[in-house]
Each structure stands twice: as structure tokens, then as C-alpha cells.
Amino acid sequence: MVAPLSGELKQFVAEHVVDRHNTNSVKWDLLQDKYGDANLLAMWVADMEFKAPQAVQDALVARAQAGTFGYSFTPQSYYDAFINWQKRRHEVTLQQDWIRFDTGVVNSLYRVVNWLTEPNEKVAVLQPVYYPFTEAIEHQGRKVVSVDLLNGDQGWQIDFANLEKTFQHEDIKLLLFCSPHNPVGRIWSEAELEAVLKLCHTYGVQLVSDEIHQDFEIGKQRFTSVLKVADGAYADQVIVLNAASKTFNLAALLNSHVIIPNEKLRQSYDAFAEGQHIVEGSLLGQVATEAAYNEGEAWFDKLLAVIRYNYQYLKDTLAENVPEITVSDLQGTYLSYVDLAPIIQPEETEKFIQETCGLAVDYGAWFSPKDQTYIRLNLATSPENVQTATDRLVTQLKQKRNR
After folding, report:
1. Rounded distance between C-alpha atoms, residue 146 and residue 128, angstroms
2. With left for phi above 0 and alpha for psi between -120 and 50, is residue 155 left, alpha or beta?
3. Which residues share a beta bridge with 156?
4. N or C: the chain end with fewer CB closer than 10 Å?
5. Which long-range contacts (CB under 8 A, 24 or more apart) does 6-11 make?
6. What local confidence, expressed as pLDDT, does residue 277 receive?
7. Residue 312 class from Cβ within 10 Å (0-12 exposed, 13-18 middle, 19+ buried)?
8. How does DSSP assign 30-91, residue by residue?
9. pLDDT tens profile 216-234
10. What is the average per-residue pLDDT within 90-108?
11. Cα three-residue angle 85-91-94, rounded to 5 degrees
12. By C-alpha distance, which of 234, 200, 198, 206 is closest to 112?
């Protein structure tokens, strides 16, 4: 049984968890449109019920009180805050001139596909994977080639033999890589990352790494950026996408980073961006992000402790009551990937989750056509919500199993 939250974390939850109903929240106020039932418990889309750090709120209020919102540039203090965070948290040394801005990592996925490939060319992904990866490819007339992850006794793994075979025979131009991996929750080891990078180098495949969840180290495994692998030996060959939006719940403020160490690639990207007239982030997004990186670390560490507690509650409660159910090892992200087989059949997954359990989740089928019995649960919410969702699953799965 999971030990109760400490008094400090209970206070953190009491001070920061908010009811987001009737706030134009996609997660809560579009349940009727998305799932056909406004009364479901929202455990889906990857944002939080936690207020941003007080320093972020104060910085936004101060900027709003200035009363002007005209054309603005990114100050040196922003770069310093971002570069220092990367160095402090992940031992990544960034150069300021590597950094470009966008309005979100998903937007950047679309842009890099458009920039680096031509219609009908092939782009590789490792499914199951966050569904905007495949949407960014398909919506722009490119072809998805999935090198599916393996899942066995050692958990989710990259199929390196198949990856190399695919690079050899499929004329892959680009690999969209998710690190940490959403939805399976893996933080790739440095050895795994180097193996991927070597294959990309050997076969001339450009790697773009989505590292938006990099700060969420849930277990013992530490995050390694592709920029840091082999002391930065491959940095010149990669493009990294990240943002503070997951870490500090800032998605609607539309500010993210495109990191391009290679000078020729940067020049190519800048020419492409000029042709697309890409907006470079947002004023308020940068105000919030700078404050978060400078003053939000203590807040984030407490948030991380709550997420670890929520994961342990989910994992332990399911293991104790319905041990057949597989909960993927959550190393990174705040999203737990759960396989309901063998109790639930693929064709009944949605009905069971929504009508029987009263939950709104991301379904495994959204991430891979092979994952029909999986669900993804968002743990960046109150312990009460996680406990309610878990207890509903346990009750209904036990009833289903015992029929």
C-alpha cells in the first residue's frame, strides 16, 4: 500500500490544484464534444490541474499591468534562464545561436516534416507514439513508416534490427523521435540513444527529437538529451524540439524551442521559416517561461513528487487487485500506459472505459493500431482524481473478470 502524502505535499496540492470546469478547458469542457459525455472524469490530454508557479503568475500580472503588448523581442535574460535550466537539470550546454522559437512542439513537428522532406517521401516513427507524429506526416502528404517498439519482459524497447533494416530498404529521409517516449514512458539510455544516432548517421537519416517531457524523471532513470550523447559528439547531426509547456503547464501561452546546432541546417531552417513567415513564440509565453526557469524549480520538484505518488498508487493498486493488468514502467512523462488485456477485449475497450468506468482517456489505438486494449492515463492531476479513476478501474475490472 502506498504511504500517504507528506504534509508538505498535501499543502502543495491544496494550494495549487484547481477545478478547471467552465474555464474553456479542452480537457474538461470539451468532454461532450470529444466523448459524448460531459460527466466523465478527465484523465486524458496532457496538461495539468495545477496552477503555474507563483513567480509565473506574478510575472504575467506585472507584464499585463504595463498595459502594452506591441511587437517585442526576446531579451538576453530569457536565453540565460533557458540555457541555465538545461545545464542545471540535464548537463546540456546550449549555444544561444542554436535556439529558434515556435508556438508549440506539435507545430514544429509539422514544420520540420514540411522543411526536411518532400511529398510522398518516407518519415519513420516508433509506434506506439504520440499521434501528432503520424498526423504531421500524413496531413502533409508524406508516408509514415513505423518501426514498432518491442514490448516484452524487459518492457518497451527499440527494435534496432528492424530499424536498421528499414533504413537500408525504405529510403527514409527523417526520423521523428520521442524522448522521453510518449505514451510508453521510457527514458532512453545513453547507449540506446547512441545506437539510434549511429544508424541515422550511417544511413543519412535526419533525426528530430521531441524532448518536451525531458524534466519528468519519475523513476531512477535519468534523462539524456541527444545533444549530450557521447559528450555531444552527435549534436551537429540532430534537431531538438522542447518547451516549458509540460513542465510548468503553459501550453496555451504558445512558446517553444527549435534547437539546431548545425550551422548549415540553421541557415536552411531560417530560409524556410522566412518563406513560411513563422511567428517566433509569444511575448507572454516568454515572460512566463523565463520566470518559470528562474524561480519555478522548487515548485516543479514538489509537483514531480505528487506525480510519483500518483503513479505508485495506480501501479500498486492495480497490481494488488487485478495483477493481470500491465502498467508500463513509467520512467519519464506523467502519462501511464496501461494494458487492460486479457480482461477487456479490443472491441469493448471504449465502451468499458467510458460507459462502465466513467473515464475519459487517450486510447492506445490512437498511438498504434496494434494497441487496442491500452489506455493512457494522465497523472498530472490531484491524487483524488487518480484514486477515483484507479478505484473505478479496479472495481469494474474485478467484476468483469469474475463474471
Report:
1. 9
2. left
3. 151
4. C
5. 8/302, 9/302, 9/305, 9/306, 9/309
6. 81
7. middle
8. THHHHHS-TTSEE--SS--SBPPPHHHHHHHHHHHHH---------HHHHHHHHHHHHHHH-
9. 999 999 999 999 999 999 9
10. 97
11. 65
12. 206
Residue 358 in this model has a pLDDT that exceeds 80: yes
Between helix 263-276 and helix 105-116 the angle, nearest 10°, is 100
- Residue 150 is predicted with a pLDDT of 98
Rg (CA), the chain: 21
CB atoms under 10 Å from CB of 160, counted, come to 15
Q: What are the strands, taking DSSP E only, across 118-196?
A: 122-125, 143-146, 150-152, 155-157, 172-178
Provide CATH code, domain 7-52+297-402: 3.90.1150.10
Domains 7-52+297-402 and 56-294 share a fold: no
Sheet holding 143-146, edge to edge: 99-102, 256-259, 238-242, 206-210, 172-178, 122-125, 143-146
Three-state DSSP class for 378?
A: strand
Domain coordinates in residue numbering, the chain: 7-52+297-402, 56-294
Question: Contact at 8 Å (CB) between 1 and 370?
Answer: no
Those residues with Cβ within 8 angstroms of residue 35's Cβ, 6 or more apart along the chain or in another chain: 354, 360
Q: Which three cell numbers stand for residue 106?
A: 506539435
Q: Which three cell numbers stand for residue 2?
A: 502506498
- Measured at the alpha carbon of residue 97, what is the angle toward residues 280 and 82, in degrees to the nearest 5? 70
Q: What are phi and psi of 337, to 5 degrees?
A: -105, 115
The answer to whether 148 touches 127, Cβ cutoff 8 Å, is: yes
Mean pLDDT of 198-222: 98
Cβ-Cβ contacts under 8 Å for 159 (sequence gap 6 or more): 147, 148, 149, 150
Task: State whether CATH 3.40.640.10 applies to domain 56-294.
Answer: yes
- Distance, CA of 118 to CA of 108 (rounded, Å): 16
CA distance linking residue 320 with residue 64, whole number of Å: 50
- Which of 117, 194, 196 is CA-nearest to residue 149? 196
Tell me: the pLDDT tens digits for 110-140? 999 999 999 999 999 999 999 999 999 999 9
In whole angstroms, give the CA distance from residue 190 to residue 53.
31
Cell numbers linked to 10? 498535501
pTM higher than 0.90, yes or no? Answer: yes
Element (H, E) at 115: helix 105-116
